[in-house]
Amino acid sequence: MNRYEQRQQWLQAEMIQRGWSGFLVTQNVDIYYYTGSMQTGYLFIPAEGEPLYLVRRSLERAEDEAHAAVEPLGSMKTLKERLAARYPGLLEAGAAAGGLRLATELDVLPVQQFQRLQAALPGAAWEDGSLLVREQRMIKSPDEVAAIRQAASVVDASLEAVIPQIREGMAEFELMALIEHQLRLRGHQGLMRMRAYNSELITGMVAAGASAAVPTYFDGPAGGTGLHPSSPQSSGRALLQRGEPILVDIGCCIDGYLIDQTRTLVIGGLDPELQRAYEVTEQVLRATEARLQPGTISEHLYLLALDQVQEAGLSAHFMGYGADQVKFLGHGIGLEIDELPVLAKGFKYPLAPGMVIAIEPKFTFPGRGVVGIEDTYLITETGYEKLTISREGVIVI
Amino acid sequence: MNRYEQRQQWLQAEMIQRGWSGFLVTQNVDIYYYTGSMQTGYLFIPAEGEPLYLVRRSLERAEDEAHAAVEPLGSMKTLKERLAARYPGLLEAGAAAGGLRLATELDVLPVQQFQRLQAALPGAAWEDGSLLVREQRMIKSPDEVAAIRQAASVVDASLEAVIPQIREGMAEFELMALIEHQLRLRGHQGLMRMRAYNSELITGMVAAGASAAVPTYFDGPAGGTGLHPSSPQSSGRALLQRGEPILVDIGCCIDGYLIDQTRTLVIGGLDPELQRAYEVTEQVLRATEARLQPGTISEHLYLLALDQVQEAGLSAHFMGYGADQVKFLGHGIGLEIDELPVLAKGFKYPLAPGMVIAIEPKFTFPGRGVVGIEDTYLITETGYEKLTISREGVIVI
């Protein structure tokens, strides 16, 4: 059984437990996860039986790529009769059980498209299957980890290629352009997918000094002015200055999978207060690593970090400043940047082998900059493997 | 009155006509359009009175940027009482009129978030305001046109900077990396926003020869293998060959606004059949330009192109090939790539001053490549102004 069939069957077992008759997968990333193909259409996974990938375009590519039966999508008006023909008894069994219970991803599916599905399948009761999919995707298979490992190596090589080119007076966006060019030459697919509504990321957060500490709408600890209010995050037009922390929080996408890594760079050296704050972020990372093993509850890692930071007297600066602090230490990562588990209060997932988590302790100093580190880890049977490979410590240029 | 207030007031007049009490704007791009700020939260525009921008983060930046009153978003549980406090009589008037009618963007808003709004404002009847917003955004103001004009100049300068670097044997993705680098150095914000669910674009469609003719899920005439099935569009690993058409369909984002332009390049020269097909695309563009004036119905331009293409004996190759043909000639463009009006059957918008439309006649030859041209036009009082400025004709290297 290949990995796609394994994923489909895991979902089917969960659906049977919940009394769901099927899952209509609508999101491009989820369709890719279950089929290996990302063509436009819908993937129907029945609780029992073979999945059906209804494709608008490109049918030809879906047929080449997908680990599922492929048919042209056709008109939505015929969806019901086609499912009925393909799955004899499905609609009747649903009716007998008091209604056909179908799941879909209500966290990403727009209302208009959902209403079209409701009209196409009258009588179906719709369940929100998004948490189930996100929880399934939390545990990575070896092929997924291999792609993430490759992405980590691309990020490291790109960073090292750029470091010798960094100069005082270079604009933040010029540094970002250099980084992106190196990433793309090494196979970065150019996307950093996020699941949450309105969330966007352009390669990462690269900013220096005061402008890195400018808060953003982005749900992360680092900010950045961006080039304009219409993309108010990450690199702007500020020029790199000697002695200020240059935050290089970047990722890349290889075979669909993302990595997330942060390093703090400086031309010359950091002042003692920022240097000490940076060292505390490494200490927080070390202490987190010591608990990074199956069974640890995800929120505990965040609470542990809060304690350490308080002891260091840096609570006001942790993960942003003031009203713009974010309330997490790390996040799952895979096909999307904002995956489960989140290392934050209220997230009680026990860590488990196969989880991949980016951990990113950072301190924000308004007017001065952001310092910190971020590595991405695989949870193993006995502990963890660090997937990011870049050298640690403040990188002095 | 500044442009944001003008936009808000236009929407208010339309809401009064429809009997809507207010519009809860949820999408980042739409919030930017009405306020000049893109921080996280909701913008409430009442049918009468001052808009209120409820911001999660960054409040500080929203206060700096937004042309609207700003308040912290706070808990969704208090949304109703806060609106009631800010707009005395709003909820009562709605109830008296048989229910509070509120609009939001059902084309992009995910179901889960919509359900949260429904719970926060019980008793409200929700209208789909997305078409209204898209129709409003169809007519650009002078500042929007200025940004698009600037984007056109960045695309031209970047293309010209890259042309001398193009070599036989260079991989498609290397060419794309060069283009992106030039665009970013000139201020491209790195995003190509699309409104439709699951739609993504990575700078554009840059591909050559047979691989450009590989169909994609992307709703456009050009294809491309992409680097992997997890991003199955645009540049792949194919190497540029002498004599094959190199399709450079690119855009960039300046001050939030996009441009779209295609040029056909070739190392050496095209074979006569492809050269002739390219010339037909220029003829289609010229014939389209001749009708590009206020009052022309958008679908007529597509039908006119179909006639011309049929006369040229190239119908099977127009805008894709076979089952993967797309059924349009062009599209509105602005903050998003997929704006109104669409030049396609069923779109009966009369052209009007201020519309900005990308027109992209192309022919696909399976196994050989894609040829075509795309320019972006502003509709003026008397006709059109071409915003893209790159040289026409097949660009021979």
Automatic annotation (TrEMBL), chains A, B:
Top-rank lineage group of the source organism: Bacteria
InterPro entries to which the protein is assigned, alphabetical: Creatin/AminoP/Spt16_N, Creatinase/aminopeptidase-like, Creatinase_N, Pept_M24, Peptidase_M24B
Name of a matching Pfam family: Creatinase_N
Residue intervals of the Creatinase N-terminal domain: 7-139
Molecular-function GO terms, alphabetical: aminopeptidase activity
Keywords, sorted A to Z: Aminopeptidase, Hydrolase, Protease
Domain Peptidase M24: 147-381
PANTHER family the record matches: AMINOPEPTIDASE, XAA-PRO AMINOPEPTIDASE P-RELATED
Protein name: Aminopeptidase P family protein
Native source organism of the sequence: Paenibacillus sedimenti
